[in-house]
């Protein structure tokens, strides 16, 4: 089920000069070798942005990019290497997997192995959970992926959205590609305002947001990036992408050249799935129904682009308000990703 990412993207992610994450963090990478063959890997991560934002977790470090053959002794050695590195920097807790933070791929898949991952979501063998838990890690938080499908949003959602729009004078509009970088500035404000109280949240810096926007610009569909406004003031937004993993799975090497790009472009035409990466409303406007309007817009415009299945991910297991909203629309949880903690 695993889908190979583009090697170019991974190389950029790991680069200490190209990835702005390293403006406020440091990391080291470890490989495990046996008889000359690489059989495991892990990254140890110190994220000052997390420490500064979460005052009560200033000594939490992270591990990520975990891959390992099914060998407990080997997994223990990888975790020991990461723990030693974190301990030397004054950190007392190792959390993960996060590659590199909650703004990137994170969580270990513990339920939902029989379906492929969507774009920018991880996937791993089932035995990884056993390796992690036998190494002394305990659950910190579950992250849920919801799925839903259909050729039209539920009628009650459409009617409810219309009434709310009229009552609160909320309007929606798509991303304006002609003002792309101005729109990115708006997303920065909304993103860091709407999610700041969430478990594990780390505000994205201007450099990080600009870096992500540059990567996503070639693949965004303007009317699947939607802003909600009230009296001209932006109050929320949603970002949905076609599930490019449906095309990337036909390029198992992860290389663009000599043939990878042609394979991806050919299969891109048949994408029928989507992933909603973010959908949020700033706290003071959360009882206006703006979220319902964003749901309805995304569903309707996704259908118009031939997208009839969508994953909403990820949602904190403790975020019952958003989970209830998803379930009222007929979405159901189908994958669980787990974040773990362990003393170093």
What are the main properties of this structure?
single chain, 344 residues, alpha+beta, Aminopeptidase, 2 domains, two-stranded antiparallel sheet, 11 helices
CATH architecture level-2 label of the largest domain: 3-Layer(aba) Sandwich
How many independent structural domains?
2
CA radius of gyration is 20 Å
In CATH, the topology of the largest domain is named Aminopeptidase
- CATH class (first level) name of the largest domain: Alpha Beta
Q: Overall pLDDT, averaged?
A: 95
How much strand? Answer: 25-35%
Largest sheet: 12 strands, mixed
Which structural class matches the secondary elements?
Answer: alpha+beta
Form type: globular
Q: Quickly count the helices.
A: 11
How much helicity do the residues have? 25-40%
Task: Please provide the count of β strands.
Answer: 14
Low-pLDDT ranges: none
Question: Could you describe the 3D structure shown?
Answer:
There is one protein chain. The protein starts with 6 loop residues before the first helix and ends with a strand. α5 packs across α10 (290-304) and α6 packs across α7 (206-216). The chain contains 11 helices and 14 strands. With 344 residues, the protein is α+β, with helices and mostly antiparallel strands. Strands 1, 2, 3, 4, 7, 8, 9, 10, 11, 12, 13 and 14 form a 12-stranded mixed β-sheet that branches. A two-stranded antiparallel sheet has the order 5-6. β12 (273-281), α10 (290-304) and β13 form a beta-alpha-beta unit. The protein folds into 2 domains: 7-142, Aminopeptidase (3-Layer(aba) Sandwich); 148-337, Gcn5-related N-acetyltransferase (GNAT) (Aminopeptidase, 3-Layer(aba) Sandwich). It has helices at 7-14, 48-53, 72-87, 127-134, 155-168, 180-194, 206-216, 245-248, 260-268, 290-304, 320-328; strands at residues 25-34, 37-47, 60-68, 93-96, 98-99, 105-106, 108-111, 138-149, 170-174, 225-230, 233-242, 273-281, 309-316, 332-343. The model has no long low-confidence stretch (mean pLDDT 95). Helices cover 33% and strands 30% of the residues. The radius of gyration is 20 Å and the shape is globular.
């Amino acid at each position: 089920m695993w889908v190979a990412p583009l090697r170019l993207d991974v190389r950029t992610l790991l680069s200490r000069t190209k990835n702005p994450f390293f403006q406020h963090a440091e990391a080291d990478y470890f490989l495990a070798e046996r008889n000359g063959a690489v059989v495991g890997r892990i990254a140890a991560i110190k994220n000052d942005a997390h420490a500064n934002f979460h005052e009560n977790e200033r000594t939490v470090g992270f591990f990520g990019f975990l891959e390992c053959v099914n060998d407990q002794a080997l997994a223990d050695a990888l975790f020991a290497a990461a723990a030693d590195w974190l301990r030397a920097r004054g950190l007392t807790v190792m959390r993960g997997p996060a590659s590199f933070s909650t703004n990137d791929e994170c969580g270990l898949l513990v339920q939902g192995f029989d379906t492929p991952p969507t774009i920018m979501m991880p996937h791993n063998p089932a035995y990884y959970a056993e390796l992690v838990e036998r190494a002394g890690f305990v659950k910190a938080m579950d992250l849920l992926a919801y799925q839903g499908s259909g050729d039209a949003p539920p009628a009650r959602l459409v009617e409810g959205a219309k009434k709310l729009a009229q009552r609160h004078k909320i309007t929606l509009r798509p991303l304006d590609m002609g003002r792309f970088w101005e729109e990115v500035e708006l997303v920065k404000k909304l993103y860091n305002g709407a999610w700041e109280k969430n478990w594990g949240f780390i505000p994205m810096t201007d450099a990080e947001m600009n870096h992500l926007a540059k990567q996503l610009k070639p693949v965004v569909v303007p009317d699947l990036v939607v802003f909600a406004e009230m009296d001209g003031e932006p109050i929320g937004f949603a970002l949905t992408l076609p599930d490019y993993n449906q095309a990337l799975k036909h390029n198992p090497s992860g290389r663009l050249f000599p043939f990878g790009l042609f394979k991806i472009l050919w299969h891109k035409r048949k994408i029928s799935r989507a992933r909603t990466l973010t959908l949020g409303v700033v706290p003071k406007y959360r009882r206006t129904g703006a979220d319902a309007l964003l749901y309805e817009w995304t569903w309707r415009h996704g259908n118009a682009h031939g997208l009839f299945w969508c994953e909403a991910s990820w949602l904190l297991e403790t975020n019952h308000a958003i989970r209830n909203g998803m379930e009222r629309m007929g979405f159901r949880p189908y994958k669980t990703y787990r974040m773990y903690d362990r003393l170093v």
